[in-house]
Amino acid sequence: MHWLPLALLTALCLALYNFFIKLAANHVSAAAGAVVLQLVAAALGAVWLVKLKLQGQPLNITGKGVLLAALAGLGVGLAEILTFVVFQRGVNSSVGTPVIVGGSVLLTAVLGLAVLREGLTMPQAGGLILIVAGIVLLARGH
C-alpha cells in the first residue's frame, strides 16, 4: 500500500485522539486522563504485538530502538498531559489542536533539518511558513 492513504488514516486517528481529549478534559484530571489514554494505547499495542508474533512475523528489537521509543513515549506522555491542561483552560478544539499539531509539525521539521541534516525544497519551506502564519492567526484571538 502507498504511504499516503496510511498517512491520511493516521491523521484521522490523531484527529480523533485530539477530539476525544477535548471532550474528556473537563471530566477527568489531566494526569488521570493521560494514564487511561496510555493504558488503552498500551493494550492496543500489546494486542498488535501478540498478533504479529503469532503470525510468525520477525520482531526487530534493539537497545537503541527501545531507547528511542521510550523517549518518544516520554514526549507523547507529556504532550497528552499538557493537551488535557490546554483544553481544561477553555481553548476551543478548533484553535488549540491546530496550534499544537501545527507547532509539532514545525518543530519536527526544524529537528529534521538541524539534527538529521534533511533537505528542504522551496515549496516545503513555503508550507512551513504557512504553518507559522496559521499558528499566529489562530493564537491572536485567544
UniProtKB/TrEMBL annotation:
Keywords: Membrane, Transmembrane, Transmembrane helix. It comes from Hymenobacter jeongseonensis. This is EamA family transporter. The chain crosses the membrane at residues 34-54, 66-87, 99-116, 123-141. It comes from the Bacteria. Residues 3-139 form the EamA domain. SUPFAM superfamilies: Multidrug resistance efflux transporter EmrE. Pfam families: EamA (PF00892).
